[in-house]
Each structure stands twice: as structure tokens, then as C-alpha cells.
Amino acid sequence: MVPLSYYLFLSGLIFTIGVLGFLVRRNLLVMFMCIELMLNGVNLFLVSLARKFGSMDGQIFVFLIMTVAAAEAAVGLAIIIAFFRNKKSANVDDLNLMKW
Amino acid sequence: MEFLIFFIAAIILVFASVLVVVQRNPVHSALFLIAALCAQAILYLLLNATFLAVIQIIVYAGAIMVLFLFVIMLLNLKKDEFGPERRKAQSFFGILFAVLLLMELGLVVKIGLSKLTPADASLSFDFGGVQLVGKSLFTDYLFPFELTSVLLLVAMVGAIVLAKKKL
Asked: Where are the domains of chain B?
């Protein structure tokens, strides 16, 4: 049995990698993938705690998070396509329409 | 044996996640993200979450990542359209913030673990299987489950409207 702490530190690490990618990268698509990484870090956390407490609730949460992630991916990618049509770019630096 | 599988999956997961961040080509990032998701499915299996492991591969690595790859191919980015990456100051503060966040998360987990009851809960025979997940989903979590159907409908309509030729 692998100790719970290993899983928790691993999920923290995955979440941090996602945050790092979101902060450092300029490409919209890669930033979006980093959001998925963050969601996965949280999912791993919930599943490992569900295993620890022997309760299904954590796994149901993960199931719902996956649904939300799917919806988010569909809408977000549609926004990226609309942005690309207007600006011919997938770089966040070009998202400056509201900049004064 | 379980330790061995855990460490192999964990190493694949961490390396693939790092490669998602550092690859310049978005297609490579997406492929490494699929590898990371599959490694995470192995971890789910180790944690007795069999149903979630299958869902992870079918829905996440299958459906969502295919959507990503479709969009990347639809945009058809040229090499020069990847854009200038990683400004110095931005990278510096990003890494600084990430290190601080990692330390904080580690601290929180450490403090939280010290307050946790040491013994693992005994698991029922079918823990994490389809039967228990379904039972929980259709009794205790019926309302959130129904709400997700509305959410998916809204997302579908929104995606179609947003991706139209003339916005």
C-alpha cells in the first residue's frame, strides 16, 4: 500500500506544474492544456482521499469535474477559434482589444 | 510491486506534465498531455477507482484531447505563429510563484496529514466500481447529476454559436 502522502504530494506537484505553465506560456492552446493539468491534479487529490476514507463521494466529485472539464474545453476551444478568426494568432499578447 | 507501479506511473506523469509546458509545438504538448492522462489512469487503478480510470481514458484522453487536436489542426499554426515565448521577467516571476505555491501546498498537506486518523478505512468489495458509483450518482447526487446535463447542453449550444463563421 503506497502511503497517502505520496499521492497528495504528487497531485500538488501536478497542480503546480499546471500553474507554472499557465503563467509562463503565451500560446492560448498550451495555456488551456495547463488548465486541464491543474484539474487533473485536483482530481488525483480527491480520488486518493476517497480511497483513504473509503467513501464514494470523492469519486463522484471527480466524475462531475470531468463533465465540467469537457464543457469547459468545448466552449474554450470555440472561443479560441473565434479569436483566431479575428486576429490570425493564438498568442495571448494579441488579446488586447479591451486594453486602454 | 504496488510501489514499483506507483513510481513508474508517477514518473511518467510528472515528466509528461513538464513536457506539456516546455514543448514549443502545441501538437507535441497535446500528445504529452494524453500520456500524462493515461499515467494518471494507472494511478486511479491503484487507488481502486476502476470506473474513473476507464472514464479518464475514454472521456479525457479520448474525447477531450481529440477536440484539442482537432482545434490545433483547424488553426494550422505555422512555426512563426507560435509567437514569442517566455519573456525573461515573466518566466522569473512565474517560476518564483510556482515554487512558493509548491512549498505552500506541501506544508498544507503535511499539516493536514498530521491531523488525519492513521488507519485506512476498510473498503467494500466493489469500491470504485460501476455499481457503487451509479448508486451514489442516482441517489445522493441525483440533482448535481441532472444539472450536468443542462451544463452540457449549454456548452454544446455555446460552442456551436461561438464557432460560427459570422459571430
From this structure: 2-78+127-166
